[in-house]
Amino acid sequence: DGGITQSPKYLFRKEGQNVTLSCEQNLNHDAMYWYRQDPGQGLRLIYYSQIVNDFQKGDIAEGYSVSREKKESFPLTVTSAQKNPTAFYLCASSKPLGQGRNQPQHFGDGTRLSIL
Amino acid sequence: RKEVEQDPGPFNVPEGATVAFNCTYSNSASQSFFWYRQDCRKEPKLLMSVYSSGNEDGRFTAQLNRASQYISLLIRDSKLSDSATYLCVVNGDTPLVFGKGTRLSVIA
User: Fold this and answer.
1) Nearest by CB: A110 against B29, B43, B99
2) What pLDDT digit, counting tens, does each position of B49-62 carry?
């Protein structure tokens, strides 16, 4: 079955440590996204990528980095510069973004990151 | 003005009730509109797209009012399983802007 796989489901980070969250999709989607959700809050866009080897910052990119070396994969690194990383991280993908019209996004089941 | 605004609720309704949610958006150039459902501690899942002419999927009806810049979701004959947070989603300057959601609790 096609879908989006995020791993790990739970992740613990020590102070000063970088951690990488994995996101893989086999939907053949061109666009991929990373969101952060805090308790009782909406989704906030961290980074997105419309094509391999290209990505754009979202609303809260500081303290995060991404790469898009393969169409299927869009890993997110939470760096030590992100001072409040505890949150629910969601990866999504969609068909290509159009001119003024966007396709719906499909989500993985998320990674919960906590600080030790 | 926030890009997408929703009443956070919670809406507590009895089984069988009809409930409606509204969502306003600020970008008059938006062309794509969706409703997502998110269960507690789960990922959002697409419930339905919203088309200009309005559309229906079983007990769910979505409508778009471009003049007033809002979309609505109507749920008829509410089930216990409809309890969730409903997210209004609109395309903006960046890909898809998500509202904070409206929480619905259907009570037996």
Assistant:
1) B43
2) 998 888 999 999 99
